[in-house]
Amino acid sequence: MTKEIKEFFRSIIIAILAAGIISNYVLAIAYIPSSSMENTMMTGDRVIGSRLFYKGDSIKSGDVVIFRYGYTCSSCGAMYQENDKGHCPECGEIDAHNKVVHFTKRIIGVPGDVIDIMPTNIKSVDTLKMGTFYNEATFTEALIMVNGKALDEKYIAEPMICDKTRYPMVHVKVPEGCYYMLGDNRNNSEDSRFWSNPFVKESDILAKVLFCFYPFNDAKIIKSYKF
């Protein structure tokens, strides 16, 4: 084997190793499969996130993040949220045999935050009870309050709806080491409001989204917002 061929293969190996290190420890790339984050990110977009030092106090409300949601079962096709049982709740196939599912959402609550989602015609959070619906609420515009302060959400696609059936009222406190996630397209997003476990563990957060790189003609920075 000539010196030139050896150098060629050496360069290929180094490039593969470097790509693996960058992918596993520096950057994360995600595909956006649905409309849940419109208009911040559109269906079919591809985004890049930073893994570097994104833990603990560096994780902030208002960040858009890539995180591990759960799995798609290789046996029955069910998509399920990660849980302590370690297998598909539908057929029992173990997690190790199933495809990991990643979601991209915005962080609304960090550990210790109290999150309230209610129709705007409700005057006090005292009317809310943990895990219940407000039975008199009708199909109406809603607001989010974090620790008693209403959020001014300029990034959402349209005013959020809250009612007694499809779009629930919420009153929760975010546990230690966990986060509360919502999509920016609130009326078309499966997120913490609907999951059996509404919270994402810190260990499941992979990266903070920095920018959208595809489609190339619509590349843009993905903004975080301070609440």
Name some characteristics of this structure:
nine-stranded antiparallel beta sheet; five-stranded antiparallel beta sheet; 227 residues
Fold and architecture overview:
With 227 residues, the chain is mainly beta. Helices cover 11% and strands 33% of the residues. It is globular. The termini are far apart.
User: Beta fraction of the residues?
Assistant: 25-35%
Q: Quick one: biggest sheet?
A: 9 strands, antiparallel
SS summary, helix count = 1
Radius of gyration: 20 Å
Oligomer: single chain
- Low-pLDDT segments: 11-23, 129-135
* SSE sequence, one letter per element: HEEEEEEEEEEEEEE
User: How many strands in all?
Assistant: 14
- The helix/strand class is mainly beta
What global shape is seen?
A: globular
Q: Provide mean pLDDT, rounded.
A: 84
